[in-house]
C-alpha cells in the first residue's frame, strides 16, 4: 500500500505543477520556487512530517521534500547557533543533494554528447 500512496501523491504533486505551468503565465523556475517554499511552509507548521509518513517517497522526492530538508536544516542551525543559523542551516542541509546533482550531471555530460537543436 505504501507504493500506491507514494505513486498517487507524487503524481498529484507533479500534476498540480503541470496545471500551474499550463494555466498560468508562471515560468517553470518560479513554479519550482513556489513548490520548494510550500514544502518549507508545511514543514514550519508541522504539517509536512505526517504527510511524508503517509506518502513516503511520493512526498520526499519532489521539490516539496527539498523545502522540508531546507527548513529542517534551518531549525537545527538556529537551535545550535542562534540567529546566524538562519543563514547557514539551509546551505548545510542541502549541500549533499546539490553537490551530488552537480557532480552526477557533469559526469552524465561527459558520457552522453548532446546536440544543439536547430
The N- to C-terminal Cα distance equals 46 Å
Main sheet specs:
none
How many individual helices?
6
Tally the beta strands. Answer: 0
Which structural category fits the helices and strands? mainly alpha
Radius of gyration: 17 Å
Shape verdict: globular
Please write the string of helix (H) and strand (E) elements.
Answer: HHHHHH
- Strand-residue fraction? under 5%
Mean pLDDT: 89
Helical proportion, percent range:
over 70%
Low-confidence runs (pLDDT<50, min 5 residues)? Answer: none
Characterize the structure shown.
The chain has helices at residues 2-23, 28-44, 48-55, 57-60, 63-81, 85-111. It is mainly α and 118 residues long. 23% of the residues are buried.
Notable characteristics:
6 helices, 82% helix, 118 residues, mainly alpha
Summarize the entry for a quick read.
The protein is an all-alpha fold and 118 residues long. Helix content is 82%, strand content 0%.
Write the layout of secondary structure elements.
Elements lengths: L1 H22 L4 H17 L3 H8 L1 H4 L2 H19 L3 H27 L7
Amino acid at each position: 500500500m505504501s507504493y500506491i500512496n507514494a505513486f498517487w501523491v507524487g503524481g498529484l504533486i507533479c500534476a498540480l505543477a503541470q496545471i500551474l505551468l499550463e494555466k498560468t503565465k508562471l515560468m517553470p523556475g518560479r513554479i519550482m520556487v513556489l513548490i520548494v517554499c510550500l514544502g518549507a511552509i508545511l514543514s514550519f507548521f508541522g504539517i509536512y512530517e505526517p504527510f511524508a509518513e503517509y506518502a513516503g517517497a511520493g512526498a520526499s522526492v519532489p521539490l516539496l521534500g527539498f523545502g522540508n530538508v531546507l527548513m529542517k536544516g534551518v531549525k537545527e542551525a538556529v537551535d545550535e547557533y542562534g540567529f546566524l543559523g538562519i543563514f547557514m542551516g539551509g546551505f548545510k542541509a542541502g549541500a549533499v543533494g546539490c553537490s551530488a546533482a552537480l557532480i552526477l550531471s557533469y559526469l552524465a555530460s561527459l558520457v552522453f554528447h548532446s546536440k544543439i537543436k536547430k
